[in-house]
Design the sequence.
């Protein structure tokens, strides 16, 4: 195997560019309770101030000895912790760190999101590099061949997840969730159950009424909002709609909008509080963060109080074979995700308790909401900017269902141009620039370097779809590239033959619900463009600036004027 060693043995910390133009932007990370650790940005808002005092003294021998000792001690730490790839550990190269804290404060002091830091480091350190973040070792992999080798060719070996922080453990009930479980029997059992019970093609069809119900409410809301404000805010409406579909898929219940909003808001708080904090990298600081652990426990309590009644109600409905449960119960017994969890026994835990069910349904709602809503927002951004693309899509929809028809799920499957727009959106704006953190199941090697078992392996996937060697004019939004004769026509997002874009990850941990996510996006886009023409607000064109908010979203949420098509 080729050794991807970098020339500089003690490279300097690179000068980092603040510009967010296409060439330097588009650097980023993932979402939900699936969230990886990339929110050090938050830490960078603290401003430690150091007060230095100086005093002239004569230096006795003891002081000199202490000074010499301190010097040798620091030198020893420096060699132990600075990751250059040349040390006995044979880690990939990387920026030299400071003693004890490694690169942690170098990242914090940059006061910008980790994904932007990584983007610049990739240019300097190449396809695989190491960052020492306090006591955590991160191996960043950015190259298509190495990603393919790790996640497809040697998939099982790189299919685990790293350790969770104490706060994340509170919400995951000790890693009892598909996204955080280590590669092993528990993960296999939870994932198999999710795939067979929630997203098998028959279940998806059986639940199409849920999407129909949510889409009708969505169109009503959009129309009302436009009447009231003169424009529509895309992201918040799409989030609410997708969240309501996922809640109904999980609990089989049509619940009122206010309750959906409360669930959406609490799950957002959960994502916020589980973002990495200093003790995740320097556990010695844990006692200083006791207040946050207390806050996390309180939030967990609220989350359970909000979701447990829905679980209990559904249980009553299932046990009474559909007789009890109240008017909001809408799915037949057995059709809701939570129904499959009531009787599930998983390796090492046996039957799942109520709190574990709260964790498992929360992960599904969080995982599927921001990701899909982000894609709809970016797609509509391009349709608003480029009316020709929008017109061509409208003609395709009308060609399929007519001007007065109703767009159905089988219709969107036939819409080739719509499919191309969605693929191009995922290529140009992958909702997360990294997949979730991976870990090796045992010490191994990649690209000629050692990958320790306890390291977090971070696959920086956004680069793939920006690489000019893989895409013609990668910064252009061109859905046509995914149609006949285009440079993306034979791209396979599952990455089996090779990876050119991977918005859903690839291999063992690939997003199990990617086709459901795409269905939600297709339906929302087709319905919205069929009913309205979407236009920029006069004198306020939408800006492509982006920011990290679990996914990489538009910095200024998209607002558009809508004109009913029938006019
Ligand atoms: C279209 C929008 C979506 C995108 C872009 C997306 C993306 C991803 C990515 C990048 C991963 C991590 C892969 C890895 O770690 O290698 C993932 C995992 C996951 N996603 Fe999605 N996802 C989407 C929709 C959904 C939906 C709708 C659901 C649930 C209904 C869902 C449930 C999950 C779960 C449970 C995992 C964890 C899989 C595991 O660790 O085995 N996702 N997704």
Sequence:
């Amino acid at each position: 195997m080729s050794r991807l060693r970098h020339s500089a043995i003690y490279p300097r910390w690179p000068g980092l560019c603040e510009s967010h133009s296409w060439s330097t932007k588009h650097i980023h990370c993932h979402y939900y309770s699936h969230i990886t650790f990339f929110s050090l940005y938050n830490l960078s808002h603290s401003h430690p101030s150091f007060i230095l005092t100086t005093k002239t003294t004569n230096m006795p021998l003891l002081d000199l000895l202490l000074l010499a000792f301190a010097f040798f001690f620091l030198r020893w730490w420096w060699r132990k912790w600075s990751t250059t790839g040349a040390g006995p550990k044979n880690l990939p190269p990387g920026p030299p760190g400071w003693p004890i804290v490694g690169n942690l404060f170098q990242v914090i002091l940059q006061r910008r999101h980790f994904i932007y830091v990584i983007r610049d480091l990739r240019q300097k350190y190449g396809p695989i590099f190491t960052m020492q973040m306090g006591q955590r070792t991160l191996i960043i992999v950015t190259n298509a061949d190495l990603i393919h080798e790790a996640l497809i060719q040697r998939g099982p070996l790189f299919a685990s997840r790293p350790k969770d922080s104490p706060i994340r453990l509170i919400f995951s009930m000790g890693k009892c969730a598909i996204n955080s479980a280590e590669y092993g029997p528990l993960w296999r059992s939870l994932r198999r159950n999710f795939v067979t019970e929630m997203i098998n093609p028959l279940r998806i069809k059986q639940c199409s009424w849920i999407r129909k119900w949510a889409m009708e409410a969505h169109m009503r809301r959009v129309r009302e909002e436009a009447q009231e404000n003169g424009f529509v805010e895309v992201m918040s409406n799409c989030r609410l709609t997708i969240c309501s579909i996922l809640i109904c898929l999980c609990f089989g219940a049509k619940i009122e909008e206010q309750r959906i909003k409360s669930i959406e808001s609490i799950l957002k708080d959960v994502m916020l509080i589980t973002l990495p904090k200093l003790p995740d990298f320097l556990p010695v600081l844990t006692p200083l963060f006791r207040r946050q652990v207390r806050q996390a426990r309180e939030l967990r309590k609220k989350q359970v109080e909000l979701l447990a009644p829905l679980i209990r109600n559904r249980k009553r409905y299932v046990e009474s074979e559909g007789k009890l449960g109240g008017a909001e119960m809408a799915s037949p017994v057995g059709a809701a995700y939570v129904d499959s969890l009531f009787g599930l026994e998983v390796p090492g835990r046996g039957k799942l308790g109520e709190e574990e069910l709260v964790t498992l349904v929360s992960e599904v709602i969080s995982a599927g909401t921001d990701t899909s809503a982000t894609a709809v927002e970016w797609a509509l951004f391009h349709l608003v900017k480029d009316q020709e693309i929008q017109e061509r899509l409208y003609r395709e929809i009308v060609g399929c269902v007519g001007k007065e028809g109703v767009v159905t799920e089988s219709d969107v499957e036939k819409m080739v141009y719509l499919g191309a727009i969605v693929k191009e959106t995922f290529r140009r704006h992958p909702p997360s620039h990294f997949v979730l953190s991976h870990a090796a199941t045992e010490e191994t090697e990649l690209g000629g370097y050692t990958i320790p078992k306890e390291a977090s392996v971070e696959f920086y996937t956004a680069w793939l779809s920006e690489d000019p060697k893989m895409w013609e004019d990668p910064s252009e939004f061109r859905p046509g590239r995914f149609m006949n004769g285009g440079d993306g026509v034979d791209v396979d997002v599952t990455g089996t033959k090779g990876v050119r874009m991977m918005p859903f990850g690839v291999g063992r941990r690939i997003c199990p619900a990617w086709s459901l996510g795409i269905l939600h996006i297709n339906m929302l886009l087709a319905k919205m463009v069929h009913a309205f023409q979407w236009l920029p607000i006069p004198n306020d064109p939408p800006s492509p600036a982006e920011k990290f908010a679990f996914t990489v979203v538009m910095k200024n949420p998209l607002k558009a004027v809508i004109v009913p098509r029938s006019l």
Observations:
- The chain has one domain: 40-49+74-564.
- The chain has a mean pLDDT of 87.
